[in-house]
Amino acid sequence: MSSPEFFDAGDPVAVVTDQPLDRVLDYAAPEGGCQPGAFVEVPLGPRKVLGVVWGAGQGGVARAKLRPVIRVLDVPPMREELQIFLRRAADYTLTPLSGMVRLATRAPGLGDPPSMRRVYRPGAHRPDRMTDARARVLAVLEDYGGLAFTLGELAEAAGVSTSVIKGLVKQGAVAEEETPRDRPYPRLDPALPGKPLTPEQAAAADALRAGLRAGGYGTTLLRGVTGSGKTEVYLESVAEALRQGRQALVLLPEIALTAEFLTRIAARFGAKPAEWHSGVTMTERRRAWKMVGQGGCEVVVGARSALFLPFRDLGLIVVDEEHDTSYKQEEGALYNARDMAVLRASICGARVILASATPSLESWVNAEAGKYDRLTLADRYGAAVMPELRAIDMRAERLPSDRWISQPLQAAVEARLARGEQALLFINRRGFAPVTLCRACGHQIGCEHCDARMVEHRFLKRLVCHQCGDTRPIPEACPACGAEGRLAPVGPGVERLTEEAQALFPEARLATLSSDLFGSARALKARVEEIAAGGADIVIGTQLVAKGHNFPELTLVGVIDADLGLQGSDLRAAERTFQLMRQVAGRAGRTEAPGVALLQTHQPEHPVIRAILSGDEEGFWRTEAAARRQAGVPPFGRMAGIVLSAPEMQAAFDLGNELARRDAPLRRAGAQVFGPAPAPIARIRGRHRVRLLVKAPRGVALQPAVADWIAQVKLPAQLRLTVDIDPQSFF
Ligand code: ADP
Ligand code: ZN
What lines the ligand 1 site, CB under 6 Å? Predict the structure, then answer.
């Protein structure tokens, strides 16, 4: 794409808007002209919408008939690097370019003129009369050494009403001034000392630093058991990027982890970086978006969508816990942030660090093939060693049907309690019980809108659908047969396990950690810190606890059902189970006290369970890679999942059948289509769902073939079609 340096007023320009239209529209450049990449407001029908000047107009509309751009926004134009990235990401994921532009402009009020806010600082004069309240205000201002406060902040910090401050302003004892709302972030100082690294850590940090110094694109898989100091090591790369004056982006899989991480950055570099995720206020989002583009922000810590920020000079992207499934966006534009990080880095000449204790098979294969460099930290930092892993054969345990904690696990927990250490009981299921069954007629309570069972949540006193979020009170009578008092919970969830633990260990202090039990990331963080400080004896948790939280006193992990993830036909079932079990086990023994992980299983001889226990990670990946290669599935083959959904099942099937029949564009490219078949969850939110699966050998240009194939059919109004390239889950 070669575009002129500047468009004069009236020149035709091509604009991509953030509206769901798959078209680039021509407009006339506004009074004063505009640059390529300019963020603009344009008329679309009766509305004004946000867009980006993509390049020269495509012609086709007479110059005199073009509608003019309304105005150019007061932000730097989108760099060519980001335009190329969005275009390639759109092509890769078969998402309209407008969808990508939308991701890149997700900050409210971008078009607003730089607004001002009123702040308060110490004034030049003394007040005529000193009161307690006035003295507190002046003391706060002095304590913070001239830092500017808003009226509300100052009133709160001093514990006074705002009228006290206003009174001080009148007397000149407090100064009131206007400053731009979007302030630059404090500078981070790479010269502050990091922790002294172990020889193994230092070698890895040196190699990564050398990569950054060499410049240009490169990806490194940084493998290391939990607690080996991967974070310490990659912070040294962040320091190097800062020294080079380039920006760094650190992606984390879970918002709840950001707070702890920001504290680590602040400890290392003397100030906190920008945050970007759904828990950040709108004002902070806009500030981050603008400062990233203007150079007032050096490091961003955030969720996957931070990849679409308008960085000025991005030099490093870290994807922490790179195997984590939350990097795949499962709604709207279906992209995998790990893959898109590599794509963006390759375009803007940045380095990527993929950090994990249990990498994804994709990344492992890329490292094996030499596409990625590989660095390994084999040892835990300090005296900590990897926990010992053992299976508890549940076939030999005769537990009643409403009990899940085996005798050996119970004994192990008791031993920890006696020594004042912590234990974790892990079950990857939210709620009280996954099934509510009528003992009179056998009916299982399901969701009215989805093909899914309602899950009892006892803390909420409601049944909840985990697909659509619908809830209802737990009924007294069976909705099918009307029998009263015969509904019974079947199977365990984290809440039910808490109940069992309460009965078994009445003296122990329990803490239940499940994502739905906390109203906010802050509440969760507070609880996690409390537990880490010894505020609980037994932690009972879901997947949430597997991710990065550090509990120093924890020496025992009990996995209630290690077989849970192995059921089902997901091609990644083995990989996911292996990763999750190793991660959870890694929670034990992170300080001097050695840890033990006990896995309750009905199939201790299952190859995946054996691999988890033996800790032979290389062996596991080699076996798993061989099996996938044999089956021709990712990463050794390519896949695209198509979901058709409609209010009527038949309509979705009819279109599915038509697509299956008209598969010539796929066959020409060397791809094959399977289906249509009802999706594993055949109904969500009242829409019936039908799936097709496209498979192709590696090396086939899958996306253009799929695009041609789909373009053959016209979508009836009620029908929705989504394409998922490299699907991660098949629901
Ligand atoms: P990982 O990211 O691999 O799980 P971390 O970087 O979080 O590991 O390190 C685990 C713990 O060990 C952290 O509390 C960290 O501060 C500490 N640690 C790691 N390396 C060092 C070091 N060289 N000096 C001091 N503390 C370290
Ligand atoms: Zn539902």
Answer: 195-198, 201, 224, 226-232, 381
The ligand 1 atom at the shortest distance from the C-alpha of residue 224 is 3
- Closest ligand 1 atom to the C-alpha of 201? 23
Q: What is the pLDDT of residues 419-440, one digit of tens each?
A: 999 999 999 898 999 999 999 9
* Stated pTM of the model: 0.85
Tell how far the Cα of 512 is from the centroid of ligand 1, in angstroms.
26
Give the ligand 1 atom nearest the CA of 226: 4
Q: What residues form DSSP beta bridges with 457?
A: 462
Six-digit token pair at 155?
Answer: 């009133």
Residue 90 CB coordination number (10 Å): 21
Three-class DSSP category at 137: helix
**Residue of the nearest CA to atom 5 in ligand 1?**
229
At 361-381, the pLDDT tens digits run: 999 999 999 999 999 998 888
CA distance 164 to 141: 14
All domains of the chain in start order, with CATH: 12-103 (3.40.1440.60), 116-180 (1.10.10), 199-377 (3.40.50.300), 388-429+492-624 (3.40.50.300), 637-725 (3.30.70.600)
Query: Concatenated DSSP letters for 596-636?
Result: EEEEEES-TTSHHHHHHHHT-HHHHHHHHHHHHHHHT-TTS
Report the separation in Å between the CA atom of 228 and the middle of ligand 1, taken as the mean of its atom positions. 6
Amino acid making up residue 347: I
Q: How far apart are CA 2 and CA 99, in angstroms?
A: 23
